[in-house]
Amino acid sequence: xxxxxxxxxxxxxxxxxxxxxxxxxxxxxxxxxxxxxxxxxxxxxxxxxxxxxxxxxxxxxxxxxxxxxxxxxxxxxxxxxxxxxxxxxxxxxxxxxxxxxxxxxxx
Length: 107
Prior knowledge:
Strand content: under 5%
Number of domains: 1
Distance between the termini: 65 Å
Radius of gyration: 19 Å
Helix content: over 70%
Oligomer: single chain
Number of strands: 0
Largest sheet: none
């Protein structure tokens, strides 16, 4: 393996992380919009179709038929999921009702 091959694999992994952040960030955004919508099924189904089409198309082109790239893309997506989970959990704790109740009960 040459240095350029290793660089390409690092870039593919970084692309997988980006895809994971976009996919799972889009899921979070879709849920926020869907629960407040009069037509939540349209948000959930439409969001699912768009996110999956985007992700599968990106996997197809970025993997180039190479299984190692496909594995790195998948691992990157999982890391992107972890990033979005950490981000959304910390955003949810700022506006958590338990925090407000606990804060209100302090003398």
